[in-house]
Amino acid sequence: MDVLRAEVRKAVTLPYTWLTVMATLALTLLVALVLASRSVDSIMATDIDALLSVPDYLAYGVITLGVLAGSTEYQGGEIRTSLTAVPRRTSLLAAKYASLTVLAAGLSLVSMVVAVGVMGLAFEARVWPLVLRGAAYLVVVSLLSFPLGLLVRSTTGALTSALMLLVIAPLVLTPVAGWSQWLPTRLGDELLLTKTRPPGAAATMAALSAWVVVTSAAGAGRFCLDDS
């Protein structure tokens, strides 16, 4: 518990955390205003359809948060200080995951609530389950980004890799490759950013969980076993 408190305290005192939070909230306001306007003009089918598209934009913020959480300490050698303070790497890694989950969940929930308020949907009970599912989607995206930071150990390289896997690949491959439906963000969209339970939800959940487990195992393996 002391390690977790220390990781949370470290994260909330770093400038990159607040820059990411402020940028994500600013993006939330901009996207919500634009989508609300488009919904009024009937470009979006309904307000709910507009709300369900918000997490796709906010993903940039939580991807950045996850990548920075995994890579920043390697940039200036601060990781050595952390490992000196907590020599047991598994405990330190678990605390980092828990800290990121707390921060990503808080940022995601606040962002989704802000979007609901800006779009004038706060008094519609049907939107609140969608808010929770949208926040869950964003937390998963952040947890997929974090191991890439541990693996690459370069903020620029890890951020590029995360954007390629989680944002660009689905956009580019969806029209031309049927297997693109198994990419992690496509799975998250299908499972969480929907008004009703999709057919094959169990298989979708299993595939998305596999992505999280595999990327986490790869990141944890390098973190715990590689001293470079």
TrEMBL record:
Q: List keywords of the entry alphabetically.
A: Membrane, Transmembrane, Transmembrane helix
* Residues annotated as transmembrane: 12-37, 57-76, 97-123, 135-152, 159-182, 202-225
Q: Does the keyword Transcription apply?
A: no
**Record bears the keyword Endoplasmic reticulum:** no
The source's domain of life comes to Bacteria
Identification of the protein by name: ABC transporter permease
Q: What high-level taxonomic lineage is stated for the organism?
A: Bacteria, Bacillati, Actinomycetota, Actinomycetes, Actinomycetales
